[in-house]
Amino acid sequence: MILLAGEDVSDPRIDADRARARIGVAFQHYNLSPHLTVLDNVTLAARLVHRMPRADPERRAFELLDSIGLAGHARACPDRLSGGRQQRVAIVRAIAASPELLLLDEVTSALDPELVGEVLELVSSPAESGTNIVMAAHEMAFARDVADRVVFLDGGRIIEEAPAAEFLSAPREERTREFLARFLPRG
């Protein structure tokens, strides 16, 4: 059972399209439509799924793209952008329609270290507004600052789950301690 705001979205009897419309997704490998411009990639869900008039999602898209320095690339096709820029466009696309749930898969993996902070700030904004976020990441500093709970997976199994502060400061499992030692130097 998967509950989203109290509704079982895994129930085969529900309207799957309506459930999907409540979820934003940013994949590790972007999954941008190469035949659409950046602007069209970002606004597509708002226009087609949410049936918003073009002006509203475009205004939001430009605000979000501007916040990460990509407004000047709005009319470009994604294949004209670097991997890091494509990843940032994918994140903007995921959050543009203000989803209730945001699923993020290693969204910082293609970014150079200078851009990681910018992207994590972009992702923090929906979290602060009440959007639930499930994020696969190795960014433990981000987890410390933003996450409510951390689930550590290894080999497809849950090794440990705890509130973020507890997970990071007092992990129970040896495997968790080994992992954190690589990402959060103790000092």
Descriptive notes:
- By secondary structure, the protein is of the alpha/beta class.
- The protein has two domains: 110 residues, P-loop containing nucleotide triphosphate hydrolases (Rossmann fold, 3-Layer(aba) Sandwich), CATH 3.40.50.300; 50 residues, no CATH class.
- Helix content is 44%, strand content 17%.
- The protein has a three-stranded parallel beta sheet with strand order 3-4-5, with helices on one face.
- α4 packs parallel to α5.
- It is globular and about 50 Å long.
- The model has no long low-confidence stretch (mean pLDDT 87).
Q: Which descriptors apply to this entry?
A:
187 residues; alpha/beta; Rossmann fold; 2 domains; three-stranded parallel beta sheet; two-stranded antiparallel ribbon; 7 strands; 17% strand; ATP binding; ABC transporter domain-containing protein; transport; ATP hydrolysis activity
List strands and helices in order, with pairings.
Layout: E1 3-4, E2 7-8, H1 16-20, E3 23-26, H2 38-48, H3 55-67, H4 83-96, E4 101-105, H5 113-128, E5 132-136, H6 140-146, E6 149-154, E7 157-163, H7 164-169, H8 174-183
Parallel strand pairs: 3-4, 4-5
Antiparallel strand pairs: 1-2, 6-7
Helix pairs in contact: 2-3, 2-4, 3-4, 4-5
CATH architecture of the largest domain: 3-Layer(aba) Sandwich
**How many independent structural domains?**
2
What's the arrangement of strands in the largest beta sheet?
A: 3-4-5
Q: What level of helicity do the residues show?
A: 40-55%
Percentage of residues in DSSP E strands: 15-25%
How many helical stretches? 8
Oligomer: single chain
**Rg, Cα atoms, Å:** 18 Å
The CATH class of the largest domain turns out to be: Alpha Beta
Question: What's the number of extended β-strand segments?
Answer: 7
Q: Helix-strand pattern, N to C? A: EEHEHHHEHEHEEHH
Q: Mean of the pLDDT scores?
A: 87
GO molecular function, one term: ATP binding
InterPro entries: ABC_transporter-like_ATP-bd (IPR003439), MetN_ABC_transporter-like (IPR050086), P-loop_NTPase (IPR027417)
Family: Belongs to the ABC transporter superfamily.
Domain ABC transporter: 4-180
